[in-house]
TrEMBL record:
PANTHER family: CYTOCHROME P450 (PTHR46206), P450, PUTATIVE (EUROFUNG)-RELATED (PTHR46206:SF7). Pfam families: p450. SUPFAM superfamilies: Cytochrome P450. Keywords: Heme, Iron, Membrane, Metal-binding, Monooxygenase, Oxidoreductase, Transmembrane, Transmembrane helix. The keyword Lipid metabolism does not apply. It comes from the Eukaryota. The keyword Magnesium does not apply. This is Cytochrome P450 monooxygenase. The chain crosses the membrane at residues 21-43. One of its GO terms (molecular function) is heme binding. The lineage of its organism: Eukaryota, Fungi, Dikarya, Ascomycota, Pezizomycotina. Gene3D superfamilies: Cytochrome P450 (1.10.630.10). InterPro entries: Cyt_P450 (IPR001128), Cyt_P450_CS (IPR017972), Cyt_P450_E_grp-IV (IPR002403), Cyt_P450_sf (IPR036396). PROSITE patterns: CYTOCHROME_P450 (PS00086).
Amino acid sequence: MTSHSDAYYPILAAKLEQNPLAVAGWVALSVALFAAMFIWSFAANVRMPKLPIAMQQEVPNKKKRIELFIKDTRRLLIESYNKYFPLTKITGTNIIIPLDLLHGLGSQKSLSFSAFLEEEFSMKKYTKVGNLDQKQISIVNKKLNPTLQYVPVIQDLVRRHWPLDDYKTSTAVKPWPHVMRMVSRISARIFHSAASAENDHWLDIASEHVHSAVVWTENLKKWPAILRPIVYRFVKGRGYMMQRFEEGKALVGNSLAERKAHGGKPLSEPQTLLDYLADSVLGPDDVESHTIAQINLCVAAIQSMSSTVTQCLMDLATHPEYAPELLKEVQRVREARGGVIDKQALTDMWMLDSFIKETQRLNPPDLTSFQRKALSDVTLSNGLRVPKGARIVLPTGAINMDREFFQDPETFNGFRYYEMRTAKEESRSTNQMVTVGKKDLTWGYGRHACPGRYIAEVAMKLVMIEFLARYDIRLPDDVKTRPKNVEFEGLVIPDPEWVLMMKSRPRA
């Protein structure tokens, strides 16, 4: 016999394909069963400081302010720069803090990046996507970052699996899917195993879960937080997302079983993060936790590295005058290292380092950084209080345009940081691609600065060196200026439809 609930849920699922506001009556039937949740939600409501909300006078309507933030985050951050103000978003209100209030907050344990990520982006309890815990991050710092062995491994992988063709004449190419595939392969080798880097099924899962989780989460965020535990099962895309997770879990389980069958020996040399985690914090048998860790690593690495490399290619096409100098540097450093590109060679490529860092300055993956949720009340250096439960961010997109830090900040200068490092002796160890500081916020700040930035630096430089060596890269003839990014709620994404003209260089 079909119960009332059996008949009801398919109807609700169908209704959820429509505008959420149009089906409020249907949802109300379920909400009535969870009245206690309403009581909790009112009790947990964050009491925000009484401050003027950004654009509140110009745009009094909250819904329209949210739409404005979605479409024009960059302008809002720049216009409100150096102020302490709330900014209205789909997920609630973020407090934008000025840079001069950052001091002392980097080590503040009551400010949590993981909690921010869970609430703002990942919704880990539904997607299994989130941040690594501190023990796992410690393994990244201690085991992955110091090793020099990955440089030849990544270089070999890039060359053996180069995803683009040779082009005898200038050919239109969409770089995004090729770059993402290459980055997915590199990530698989570092995080999972040598075999997974050759496994197309794993590479598909690693890259697709990023996209499916982001799309599904954005759909779920349209619903009030109090309704999400009810409606999440019916939001479009969940079935596919979880199916891919289970497929990934089966592959990770196979890797752990193979490792166990060989007496716990590493799957690959040099060892991957899966090996290190299996020998320490996760153990050899917890397939679910290992899979979650792998997916989280993929989400963090693939999107950001693919975005940065693609943005660099677009800047190279827009400013082709940089290519000859960058190529000369690569050749000079390679010769100085006996014909080998090792970790020291990559470190010595100051011009390439500067070029990538300048691309990140103007087109970072995110226009905000130092993203934290207050686990308890926090008092800032000027006496203002951040209440428990509030979310704070720094306006990185505006800081990167500050004339106090950067001369002519609107202009792309690929050698900006190279010039800074060569101008003063004390600047040589700063102004690097992996530098973290008050004006270097691409990788975050403080104790939660990206732990994988050193290995990401190696991977991105090796991919860029290969592009430089292989192709002359230009904009199409009918494109006169740098094409615009896709920008959504502060996220900056290369347009997957971007086209570049590539022609193979003569190979030595």
